[in-house]
Amino acid sequence: MPSTALARQHNDPGFPSLWEELRWRGLVQVSTDEEALAAVLASGSITAYCGFDPTAPSLHLGNLLQLLVLRRLQLAGHRPLGLVGGSTGLIGDPRPTAERVLQSKEQVADRVRLIADQVARFLDFDGEVAAEVVNNLDWTEGLSAIDFLRDVGKHYRIGTMLKKDAVSTRLNSEAGISYTEFSYQILQGYDFLELFRSRGCVLQTGGSDQWGNLTSGIDLIHRVEGKAVHAIGTPLITNSDGTKFGKSEGNAIWLDAVLTSPYAFFQFWLNTTDDDVVDRLKAYTFLTRAEIDELDLAQTDRPGLREAQRRLAWEVTALVHGDPAADAARDASAALFGTGELGAIDAGTLEAAITELPRTHGEPGDRLDALLAASGLAKSNGDARRAIAQGGVYVNNRRVEDADAVLGEPDLLHGRFVVLRRGKRTLAALVRA
């Protein structure tokens, strides 16, 4: 995370405790004993961890929620550990439907490095509660199968393991479950035990769908060390219509700028529905309750301005990609629809902004009426000429007044792109052939 974002992050002092704020922000779906956990969080600095398996080359929005929980804990004076699963990534957390395809050790190692770098961006590594990124391969790679079965496996009961949701679902499916994935919960439990022993870690956070794996470590520590530790399961975020949050036409929204551009990231948040925007502001930003209440009121009084969505989009984009990228995405979004200067947008942001638009190819000297027809903004050359005559056609937000106009070299932004617009909001892109 950019240092400017870290510097302006604070928990809301209007809450009597961190626990109350986590509850208000909708970040607690399930937990160990609530009263005891609230007391632990209020009693002094503790160490907490969350695990991130390298199942992809980037983290996504579900992972971002976990990182922000760790950051909120750190801001409250607790030490966060970001665990990257170099060993659990080799095994694979059981999915409800089918066995994961095992990745090579080399591919997992490459992804571990990428994920570790991403985790490190969202935590502060200075000060009394400096964060640490750890890799569970460090304490499992040298562990023999015999030692693992004797020292760890003997504390697990098959009956209990079979009751875990992910396991029972797979057992009842055609695919079944391999011993490899069945053992995943033991490995995750061992991680908690190791971090308890080596770093005094007493809290694990994760998604509520991981609750069986979270409690695996709690049970193991209780059996081996006779100590009580804690866990928080965050809710699985869904949209108000019940669809899975963080999916766009089947594709995850990634934190890696190459996989999801800052502009596309910004647009995802900008398109949040009115029913969902306040919940997203609570969970994914560091805005205070008073600020969020004010945006909620603005949404009710002035819904057409979409102030809450615009603030949400900027805040989360700045959080992940930095202020300049958030500013560029905001300005590009405005400029596409005529309220900003397209020529001031950098080439990368502009290219990302027009990715989803209908497009055609053209060169200087091509007639604009033909290009409008080719782009789909007009049904024919004649339709395009009528639209120009009526004053409804724009090239890079400049109204076209001549029905016989041709594309000029200066029209090509960054020597490559042209934004065509008919009316207020119907857009197409022209890219130099």
Keywords for this entry:
433 residues, alpha/beta, Structural Genomics Hypothetical 15.5 Kd Protein In mrcA-pckA Intergenic Region, Chain A, 3 domains, five-stranded mixed sheet, 21 helices, elongated
Any overview of this molecule?
With 433 residues, the protein is α/β, with parallel strands linked by helices. The chain is 46% helix and 13% strand. A 6-stranded mixed sheet has the order 1-6-5-2-3-4, with helices on both faces. Strands 9-13-12-10-11 form a 5-stranded mixed sheet. The protein folds into 3 domains: 3-234, 3-Layer(aba) Sandwich (Rossmann fold); 247-345, Tyrosyl-Transfer RNA Synthetase (Orthogonal Bundle); 359-432, Roll (Structural Genomics Hypothetical 15.5 Kd Protein In mrcA-pckA Intergenic Region, Chain A), CATH 3.10.290. It has 21 helices and 13 strands. It has helices at residues 3-7, 18-24, 34-43, 61-75, 88-91, 105-120, 137-140, 145-151, 158-162, 165-171, 179-182, 184-199, 211-225, 262-270, 274-284, 289-301, 307-321, 323-336, 347-353, 368-375, 381-389, and strands at residues 30-31, 47-52, 79-84, 132-135, 201-207, 230-234, 247-248, 251-252, 359-362, 393-395, 398-399, 417-422, 426-432. Helix 4 (61-75) links the parallel strand 2 (47-52) and strand 3.
